[in-house]
Amino acid sequence: MSVTLVSRSEVESAFAAPCFLARVRAGFPSPADDYMDRRLDLNEYLIHHKEATFYCWVQGESMEGVGIFDGDLLIVDRAEDARDGDVVLASLNGELTCKILDIPRRRLIAAHQDYPPIVISEGACFEVEGTVISSIRLFRARPR
Protein backbone atom coordinates (compact mmCIF):
# COMPACT_ATOMS: atom_id res chain seq x y z
CA MET A 1 0.00 0.00 0.00
CA SER A 2 1.41 3.36 -0.93
CA VAL A 3 0.43 6.72 0.47
CA THR A 4 0.32 10.22 -1.00
CA LEU A 5 0.80 13.10 1.45
CA VAL A 6 -1.64 16.02 1.31
CA SER A 7 -1.07 19.44 2.82
CA ARG A 8 -3.45 20.49 5.57
CA SER A 9 -4.34 23.66 3.66
CA GLU A 10 -5.81 21.54 0.85
CA VAL A 11 -8.49 20.03 3.12
CA GLU A 12 -8.75 22.29 6.17
CA SER A 13 -11.82 24.42 6.68
CA ALA A 14 -13.81 26.02 9.46
CA PHE A 15 -17.16 24.72 8.23
CA ALA A 16 -19.46 23.35 10.92
CA ALA A 17 -22.49 21.36 9.72
CA PRO A 18 -25.63 20.44 11.67
CA CYS A 19 -25.39 17.21 13.66
CA PHE A 20 -28.41 15.05 14.59
CA LEU A 21 -28.98 14.40 18.30
CA ALA A 22 -29.82 10.71 17.81
CA ARG A 23 -27.73 8.13 16.02
CA VAL A 24 -28.90 7.39 12.49
CA ARG A 25 -30.24 3.88 12.08
CA ALA A 26 -28.83 1.71 9.33
CA GLY A 27 -31.94 -0.47 9.50
CA PHE A 28 -35.56 0.74 9.56
CA PRO A 29 -36.05 4.52 9.87
CA SER A 30 -37.37 6.09 13.06
CA PRO A 31 -39.54 9.22 12.67
CA ALA A 32 -38.51 10.48 16.12
CA ASP A 33 -34.86 10.88 15.14
CA ASP A 34 -35.13 14.21 13.31
CA TYR A 35 -33.95 16.53 16.09
CA MET A 36 -30.76 18.53 15.64
CA ASP A 37 -28.29 18.59 18.50
CA ARG A 38 -25.69 21.19 17.56
CA ARG A 39 -23.28 22.10 14.79
CA LEU A 40 -20.30 19.80 14.37
CA ASP A 41 -16.94 20.96 13.03
CA LEU A 42 -15.07 17.89 11.78
CA ASN A 43 -11.73 19.59 12.48
CA GLU A 44 -12.74 19.89 16.14
CA TYR A 45 -14.03 16.31 16.24
CA LEU A 46 -11.19 14.55 14.40
CA ILE A 47 -8.11 16.68 15.04
CA HIS A 48 -6.69 16.89 18.55
CA HIS A 49 -3.20 18.21 17.77
CA LYS A 50 -3.63 20.69 14.92
CA GLU A 51 0.06 21.43 14.33
CA ALA A 52 1.00 17.73 14.44
CA THR A 53 -1.76 16.43 12.16
CA PHE A 54 -1.48 15.75 8.45
CA TYR A 55 -3.47 13.94 5.78
CA CYS A 56 -2.58 11.34 3.17
CA TRP A 57 -4.40 9.43 0.45
CA VAL A 58 -4.33 5.63 0.49
CA GLN A 59 -3.45 3.50 -2.50
CA GLY A 60 -3.85 -0.28 -2.28
CA GLU A 61 -5.90 -2.92 -0.52
CA SER A 62 -3.65 -4.19 2.28
CA MET A 63 -5.63 -2.45 5.05
CA GLU A 64 -9.18 -3.35 3.99
CA GLY A 65 -9.61 -5.62 7.03
CA VAL A 66 -9.67 -2.57 9.31
CA GLY A 67 -11.85 -0.49 7.00
CA ILE A 68 -9.16 1.46 5.14
CA PHE A 69 -9.72 1.26 1.39
CA ASP A 70 -7.99 2.45 -1.77
CA GLY A 71 -8.74 6.16 -2.23
CA ASP A 72 -9.50 6.88 1.44
CA LEU A 73 -8.08 9.97 3.09
CA LEU A 74 -6.21 9.23 6.33
CA ILE A 75 -5.93 11.65 9.24
CA VAL A 76 -2.54 11.07 10.87
CA ASP A 77 -1.37 12.55 14.18
CA ARG A 78 2.37 12.80 14.92
CA ALA A 79 1.74 13.84 18.55
CA GLU A 80 -0.02 10.57 19.49
CA ASP A 81 2.40 7.96 20.80
CA ALA A 82 2.05 4.82 18.67
CA ARG A 83 1.04 1.82 20.77
CA ASP A 84 1.06 -1.87 19.97
CA GLY A 85 -1.89 -2.63 17.70
CA ASP A 86 -2.31 0.93 16.42
CA VAL A 87 -2.67 1.63 12.71
CA VAL A 88 0.31 3.79 11.83
CA LEU A 89 1.93 5.52 8.92
CA ALA A 90 5.52 4.29 8.97
CA SER A 91 8.65 4.87 6.97
CA LEU A 92 10.68 1.71 6.39
CA ASN A 93 13.90 2.10 4.44
CA GLY A 94 12.58 5.26 2.81
CA GLU A 95 9.14 3.93 1.80
CA LEU A 96 5.91 5.05 3.45
CA THR A 97 3.34 2.43 4.36
CA CYS A 98 0.16 2.21 6.41
CA LYS A 99 0.09 -0.91 8.62
CA ILE A 100 -0.74 -2.22 12.09
CA LEU A 101 2.17 -1.85 14.51
CA ASP A 102 3.25 -5.08 16.24
CA ILE A 103 5.85 -3.89 18.76
CA PRO A 104 6.66 -7.20 20.55
CA ARG A 105 7.43 -8.99 17.27
CA ARG A 106 9.05 -5.93 15.61
CA ARG A 107 6.87 -6.00 12.52
CA LEU A 108 4.18 -4.22 10.54
CA ILE A 109 1.02 -6.18 9.82
CA ALA A 110 -1.34 -5.77 6.89
CA ALA A 111 -5.08 -6.15 7.48
CA HIS A 112 -5.50 -8.40 4.45
CA GLN A 113 -4.71 -12.10 4.31
CA ASP A 114 -2.85 -11.83 0.98
CA TYR A 115 -0.12 -9.62 2.48
CA PRO A 116 2.50 -11.11 4.82
CA PRO A 117 3.82 -9.20 7.84
CA ILE A 118 6.82 -6.96 7.26
CA VAL A 119 9.62 -7.69 9.71
CA ILE A 120 11.55 -4.65 10.92
CA SER A 121 15.08 -6.04 10.84
CA GLU A 122 17.97 -4.79 12.96
CA GLY A 123 19.65 -1.89 11.20
CA ALA A 124 16.58 -1.04 9.12
CA CYS A 125 15.78 2.64 8.74
CA PHE A 126 12.40 2.62 10.51
CA GLU A 127 10.29 5.44 11.90
CA VAL A 128 6.64 5.82 12.83
CA GLU A 129 5.56 9.02 11.08
CA GLY A 130 2.27 9.15 12.95
CA THR A 131 -0.73 7.31 14.32
CA VAL A 132 -3.75 7.00 12.04
CA ILE A 133 -6.67 8.63 13.84
CA SER A 134 -9.36 8.20 11.20
CA SER A 135 -10.07 7.56 7.56
CA ILE A 136 -12.53 9.32 5.30
CA ARG A 137 -14.19 7.57 2.37
CA LEU A 138 -16.19 9.35 -0.30
CA PHE A 139 -19.26 7.57 -1.64
CA ARG A 140 -19.85 10.14 -4.34
CA ALA A 141 -17.07 11.89 -6.18
CA ARG A 142 -16.91 15.64 -5.76
CA PRO A 143 -17.89 17.65 -8.83
CA ARG A 144 -14.89 19.19 -10.55
TrEMBL record:
InterPro entries in alphabetical order: LexA-like (IPR039418), LexA/Signal_pep-like_sf (IPR036286), LexA_repressor (IPR050077), Peptidase_S24_S26A/B/C (IPR015927)
EC number: 2.7.7.7
Domain Peptidase S24/S26A/S26B/S26C: 22-133
Domain of life: Bacteria
Keywords for this protein: Nucleotidyltransferase, Transferase
GO molecular function, one term: DNA-directed DNA polymerase activity
PANTHER family: LEXA REPRESSOR, LEXA REPRESSOR-RELATED
Name recorded for this polypeptide: Translesion error-prone DNA polymerase V autoproteolytic subunit
Species for this entry: Halomonas binhaiensis
